[in-house]
Design a protein that fits this description.
By secondary structure, this protein is an alpha/beta fold. It folds into 2 domains: about 5-180, Nitrogenase molybdenum iron protein domain (Rossmann fold); about 190-340, Rossmann fold (3-Layer(aba) Sandwich). A 5-stranded parallel β-sheet has the order 6-5-4-7-8. Strands 11-9-13-14 form a 4-stranded parallel β-sheet, with helices on both faces. A 3-stranded antiparallel β-sheet has the order 1-2-3, covered by helices on one side. It has helices at about 5-15, 70-80, 105-110, 125-130, 150-155, 170-180, 185-205, 230-240, 270, 285-290, 300-305, 320-330; strands at about 35-40, 45-50, 55-60, 65-70, 85-90, 115-120, 135-140, 160, 210-215, 220-225, 240-245, 260-265, 275-280, 305-310. About 30% of the residues lie in helices and about 20% in strands. Helix 6 packs antiparallel against helix 7 (about 185-205).
Length: about 350
């Protein structure tokens, strides 16, 4: 029996963690997935922020005590130097530390003394009240979404809903910057990554037309594969690759998504046709499992030895983008010439 999309989305929302939280929150209708906007003059308060569910939220002053009910959004807030005082957490595992923070930004959270709240799936309104927040951030979709509790949350503090599944990290950063008064930092982060991408692209000199597939490999299960419309594709295009999406007929998703297609194990050989394959949230063990899978032995990337592990998580934020760029700058062995002949 094919797993439901909601259960598969848990993997994307919080990485390749082995746990069961039941179904993720159902994705809102398309009209609720628009990019939010803010009506304000930079540096001035109050401001009105229209969030991803078309709610116009009045934020009376620059936030000083932000609670994130979405562990998937916490990293993006921290990258803006936003004053996050507490965050929902993920179960401890390969991608999350003992506090339940994602490892690629956990040290930042620790340095800033971010308080771990409840583990996702165990919503605790009293814990949030005790933090006395002046802004609460909620994810629109995913395993860490608390949209069903908006009414109760808005009795505590202004609460905004942000969708991290339909925009790249730059757009997300800009949006959160508007809500938190950290617009300048958002611009700085975007410029820094853009400059670094350009530098590394020159260093890599990937031959024009070199194709790449980006996958979170689930042996014998449903594997998310990055779409050309998603944030991973944008980053890899900047580095010189042409990202290959899964053909639509192989996508088992039941709801519109911009970031990933969900492809069954049996359809992977017909889907992963790129010159190179990059495995998300993978190490040596996962790479060996992929390259030794007999069903995938004839893939161009396997045949040429161009399968590469990326330890970065599935959700691409500023810190994850920098981690990927670190890999390409310091550890990427380069493409063999055979697949390009």
């Amino acid at each position: 029996m094919r797993p439901s999309l909601s259960r598969i989305a848990v993997v994307l929302c919080i990485g390749a963690l082995a746990f069961s939280l039941g179904s993720c929150a159902t994705a809102p209708a398309e009209q609720a997935r628009d990019t939010g906007t803010a009506a304000f003059e930079v540096g001035h308060w109050p401001r009105t922020f229209t969030d991803s569910m078309h709610n116009a939220i009045r934020i009376p002053a620059k936030p000083e005590r932000i609670v994130s009910t979405s562990v998937g959004l916490t990293g993006s807030l921290l990258a803006l130097d936003a004053p996050v005082i507490a965050s929902a957490t993920a179960p401890e595992g390969p991608d999350a530390d003992g506090d339940g923070f994602f490892k690629h930004w956990a040290d930042v959270a620790s340095d800033r003394k971010v308080e771990p709240l409840y583990e996702i799936g165990k919503f605790d309104l009293e814990e949030i009240k005790d933090q006395k927040p002046d802004l609460i951030v909620v994810a629109a979709t995913g395993a860490d979404s608390e949209v069903d509790s908006l009414g109760a949350l808005r009795k505590i503090a202004p609460t905004i809903v942000v969708d991290y599944a339909d925009k790249d990290w730059n757009e997300l950063s800009k949006l959160l910057g508007e809500a938190t008064g950290t617009e300048e930092k958002a611009q700085q982060n975007t410029a820094a990554v853009s400059e670094r991408v350009s530098t590394i692209r020159s260093m890599l000199a990937i031959p024009s037309g070199t194709t790449a597939s980006i996958i979170s490999y689930a042996a014998h299960g449903i594997s998310p594969i990055a779409k050309t419309t998603g944030p991973y594709a944008q980053l890899f295009r900047g580095l010189g690759f042409t990202v290959v999406s899964a053909p639509k007929k192989f996508d088992t998703s039941t709801q519109p998504r911009e970031d990933f297609s969900f492809v069954s194990y049996n359809d992977l050989p017909a889907t992963l046709t790129a010159d190179a394959t990059f495995l998300l949230a993978a190490g040596k063990k996962a790479t060996t499992a992929f390259t030794s899978d007999e069903s995938l032995a004839q893939l161009p990337s396997v045949q040429s030895g161009s399968v590469f592990p990326l330890t970065s998580p599935h959700l691409l934020d500023y810190y994850a983008a920098q981690k990927i760029l670190d890999y390409f700058e310091h550890d990427f062995p380069g493409l063999s010439s055979s697949e390009l002949e």
